[in-house]
Amino acid sequence: xxxxxxxxxxxxxxxxxxxxxxxxxxxxxxxxxxxxxxxxxxxxxxxxxxxxxxxxxxxxxxxxxxxxxxxxxxxxxxxxxxxxxxxxxxxxxxxxxxxxxxxxxxxxxxxxxxxxxxxxxxxxxxxxxxxxxxxxxxxxxxxxxxxxxxxxxxxxxxxxxxxxxxxxxxxxxxxxxxxxxxxxxxxxxxxxxxxxxxxxxxxxxxxxxxxxxxxxxxxxxxxxxxxxxxxxxxxxxxxxxxxxxxxxxxxxxxxxxxxxxxxxxxxxxxxxxxxxxxxxxxxxxxxxxxxxxxxxxxxxxxxxxx
Length: 306
What we know:
Shape: elongated
Family: Belongs to the class-II pyridine nucleotide-disulfide oxidoreductase family.
Number of domains: 2
Catalytic activity: [thioredoxin]-dithiol + NADP(+) = [thioredoxin]-disulfide + NADPH + H(+)
Keywords: Disulfide bond, FAD, Flavoprotein, NADP, Oxidoreductase, Redox-active center
CATH topology of the largest domain: FAD/NAD(P)-binding domain
Strand content: 25-35%
Pfam families: Pyr_redox_2
Low-confidence stretches: none
Number of strands: 17
Distance between the termini: 19 Å
EC number: 1.8.1.9
């Protein structure tokens, strides 16, 4: 059975960057991705204006450029879902959903993160019927309609701004009395005549008959309930890491992020982690790309000592 030098799990910015650097290092590498569309969360980003050298782009376009680069280099890729990893010894084993086993000397976990949910009545029942976690994916369905965005970070502000360009009105619901997103985004939100910020409030219920018709919100200070008639609700309350693989073996923080520094080194020999799934201060495309490069450097050092 073939033994790879490196298998990268995940094809977001960190995974793609790692694959490119691994190819340049002449490592026998396989890139695994469970979705046919590579790119991770960034493909859902409407506007990316902070990636050096590309002043105006969107997540889909940037992801496509990463994928084209990888294709030009001839990087071996496979669409498959990983269900288990046996990390012991100098050769690790990766188990795929179809039962196939892949052997490799090192692994980079670039599995990223997924959207957090509110966990309120109606959210699960009306998912895809007005409840969304991706404004750039579903925003066009709500043209000239009333929508709500839940959250106060960069993604929530970006979603509200994006939706304000097509929706009649956008409510931005935040549980605190000040926003957490970038100042430039805050200014755009506050200067929009289509966006109304509802402070110190949380969504307690989503109502509707086969589609979202209204939401119940509660002011956390005054404990006053209020109903908002909306056609859609976009939930942007952060992410949680995709770190089920090797849970109980890999050291993680209390939120489930894999403990790894900028070098990507984890507590398991030959297992490295990069991107949004590891402990770090800033989760952006540019930091994920850097993680991929750093992980490969660590992989090279590890392989030299085998």
